[in-house]
């Protein structure tokens, strides 16, 4: 009987199942990406046979870790160690590939042997000082469209492809392997390694050796290979992003589920009354409705799992996206199915309770589909369509409210993400233009400017050019403290223009080494006052001042001298950015082009354009587009479902209107107006919800101040455009179907 009830309204059932399936597909696909990253890191760390991995303490990603190269030889000499080798990882861009994993290995170390060459020959077989060699993963070679013997440019340098390898891991096969020396030069990490891989003589002593190494090297952290994969930033980011987008799809789909089951229950009120009169208990009615919603969820979950697996297969077939190695696991599919079933059950709770409370006599008198021809043709001309549309929507207040909630949640997500993007642009623009800076310079062809590394010597060379007043360095990284797990520390040139940006309101500014100034929120969170000593890494820094910039994100940070930051983060003589100040700002374009021509591995932008040119901003924009598309798809399904239910319910009414002379175009316009009205009301609800959420986000200790949401006209216009798209997508088919109803058939409809 449950299945029969679902097949009565096949279109409605299909749309409801589709809404759930989209959410489950997102859970499976994005969860598979996160799992793929974890498996990729696991293969990299333990696939070589290493028992222990050493990283820089406080570094939450191997690509940001910096260890002195001498440590490798010291560890290798320990009696418990069989072999030790250094390695380096960088995330760059390459032709036809937005993300390209670059691995640097000691050619004589044991770790590089895990790369099995299937074409050509391994690195270092032919010794040459004039030609740099690279091993390309099979997926990367397909994406870049090169073969053995061809040349490929990485970070501005030419490399000859000496071989093609395949490991079976997209994380590896979507990248390239070069010698450690070449990687150090390309990534500006001279005499450094990102990690030390250690193979022990007796693996059973792993825990004892780990403790010994951490005593010997207090600035480093040591982990077993199998444990380190879960601690990498990419895994956490992918998991968080996947959870957020999937949750959004599930919530909107869940609202649609409740709407569908509720309308199905209303539609069958008299039938339920008959069942109650025939002796059905309240519990039996409740279980019937709950069973229908649970079955809807299960079907949606099954389709979603299949769709998610299909999406993963599609991604795997695109060589340029090889780094998105996706791994579907049984627990992931179970999670998707469980979510769908729970969602179906929750969506049916209220409708089931409502149906079980119906009294037989009242239910048998219900006339939910009766036609009320009174006032069908509005008597007023001015604004009659508004009143008529609102009157129609008000007939089913519960259905209207649920539809608006679903639309509002999707639009709120769009407003929040777009507002965050606007906020970050303002923050970065303010920093880039502080102190009269004209140009910002960073390392080119990186997927994230957190990896940017520029030799200080370059800054001195640019500063000596005619027309350049100064080229001051700046670097930013994260340290971990007891009070704040991720405290952003900035290192600035104390004589440069950026130093003046951090206006000290208490105490004094930076004068010498080991001085630290804090923003007020950071000082409060750390419970530090002027004169106190803060522990950053293994060193102590005296708090000498409190600053304010007017930018909440920056006021949650700490600032030290550039040399201190270089020591703290293990990046001697390197800066992340160069802030260039010119004698004549009108020459900014000329100097920018000269920097790019002179230093091919660097990129530069006029300060006002700096924020928009960052890879981070491009990713946030992509996420905003993805969320907008998701809101349109899932919200459009919900909207279409609502409008179809409304149209079925008013079939006889529409037939009456057609008999009274309404043309098809007028009927079509009426239904579209209702759909657009729902979307526009959803805009108001979405913006209001986004405002409330933005205020709640600000209450998050420390991190709330780093999440500025700007409600600009552009953000609101984007939400409005999406809402109009929702109304059009969701209302077009129901409007077309209503317009094509024949009056005679419609009037016979029961």
Describe it for me?
It is a single chain. This protein has about 750 residues and is α+β, with helices and mostly antiparallel strands. It has four domains: about 1-50 and about 235-370, no CATH class; about 60-220, no CATH class; about 370-425 and about 615-750, no CATH class; about 445-600, no CATH class. A hairpin with a 2-residue loop joins strand 19 (about 535) and strand 20 (about 540-550). It is globular. It starts with a helix and ends with a helix. The model is unreliable at about 370-385 (pLDDT under 50).
List the helices and strands and how they pair.
Blueprint: H1 2-6, H2 10-46, E1 52-56, E2 67-68, H3 70-76, E3 81-94, E4 97-105, E5 117-120, E6 133-137, H4 138-144, E7 151-154, E8 157-165, H5 170-173, E9 175-179, H6 180-186, E10 192-193, E11 195-200, H7 206-216, E12 220-224, H8 225-228, H9 233-267, H10 269-277, H11 282-316, H12 330-356, H13 360-364, H14 384-395, H15 397-432, E13 439-443, E14 454-455, H16 456-463, E15 468-479, E16 487-492, E17 503-507, E18 515-519, H17 520-526, E19 533-536, E20 539-548, E21 558-561, H18 562-568, E22 574-575, E23 577-582, H19 588-598, E24 602-606, H20 615-649, H21 651-659, H22 664-697, H23 713-739, H24 743-748
Helix pairs in contact: 2-9, 2-11, 2-12, 2-20, 9-11, 9-12, 9-15, 9-20, 11-12, 14-22, 15-20, 15-22, 15-23, 20-22, 20-23, 22-23
Note the main attributes of this structure.
about 750 residues, alpha+beta, 4 domains, about 50% helix
